[in-house]
């Protein structure tokens, strides 16, 4: 496993798409944070307070999308360029390769998300007026502390689900399209179906993940927002395991 992790690390860090998508993730996330801080001038009640949730809007809306695309490409790029045979020749146990890819990027995505969250907080504070900046005390603010752990957990869960989809589809465009359509539209559209639409809308995995991230109750009372993360995790694990099983049985 250690040698496989090393080889996957080499593949990842020598792939140009990994670096430019990571740069895009940072630019989007920090760009929104900078804009939020700049608008917190303190000249009116609307601009007097600097809220932790507002500083990470870019990360939540678009940054996570970049992570999902990266997670998919980590698995599908090998099949795109046709060097999966060499990988499986070096490591005959294909599940070890899949697990190494997943573990490597889960750690990277969670760490990158945590660091970016902190950068968003402090960049917004630096650009806000003194009065507005004083309203966000990063290590004492309850919302900020929740974001610090919830966003990395959400990133890890998204990576797991996208990894499963990528293993099942094995084609970048198809897997990315499926994941993004599911994330942005599928559950919302299905919620309009007669009779079953309400249940589909409530118990869609991405609906529950959004509930966990935003702490907005979207499902039946008694099912907490944290339970929504567990529910999403169950979907992610099932898809990932299914992806590994399919990879073991398919031709290399």
TrEMBL record:
Keywords from the UniProt entry: Membrane, Transmembrane, Transmembrane helix
Record bears the keyword Membrane: yes
Keyword check for Nucleotide-binding: no
Domain of life, source organism: Bacteria
Positions of transmembrane segments: 18-39, 59-81, 102-124, 144-168, 175-193, 228-246
Name of protein: ABC-type multidrug transport system, permease component
Organism: Corynebacterium deserti GIMN1.010
């Amino acid at each position: 496993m250690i040698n496989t992790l090393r080889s996957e690390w080499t593949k990842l860090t020598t792939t140009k798409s990994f670096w430019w998508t990571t740069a895009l993730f940072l630019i989007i996330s920090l760009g929104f944070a900078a804009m939020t801080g700049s608008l917190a001038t303190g000249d009116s009640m609307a601009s007097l307070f600097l809220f932790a949730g507002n500083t990470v809007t870019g990360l939540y809306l678009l940054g996570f999308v970049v992570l999902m695309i990266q997670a998919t490409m980590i698995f599908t790029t090998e099949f795109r360029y046709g060097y999966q045979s060499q990988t499986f020749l070096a490591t005959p146990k294909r599940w070890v390769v899949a697990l190494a890819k997943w573990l490597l990027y889960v750690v990277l995505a969670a760490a990158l998300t945590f660091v970016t969250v902190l950068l968003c907080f402090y960049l917004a504070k630096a650009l806000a007026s003194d009065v507005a900046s004083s309203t966000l005390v990063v290590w004492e603010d309850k919302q900020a502390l929740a974001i610090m752990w919830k966003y990395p957990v959400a990133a890890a869960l998204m990576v797991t689900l996208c990894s499963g989809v990528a293993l099942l589809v094995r084609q970048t465009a198809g897997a990315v399209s499926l994941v993004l359509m599911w994330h942005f539209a599928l559950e919302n559209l299905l919620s309009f179906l007669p009779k079953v639409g309400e249940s589909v809308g409530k118990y869609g995995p991405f609906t529950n993940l959004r509930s966990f991230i935003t702490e907005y109750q979207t499902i039946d009372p008694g099912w907490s927002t944290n339970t929504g993360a567990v529910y999403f995790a169950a979907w992610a694990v099932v898809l990932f395991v299914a992806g590994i099983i399919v990879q073991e049985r398919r031709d290399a």
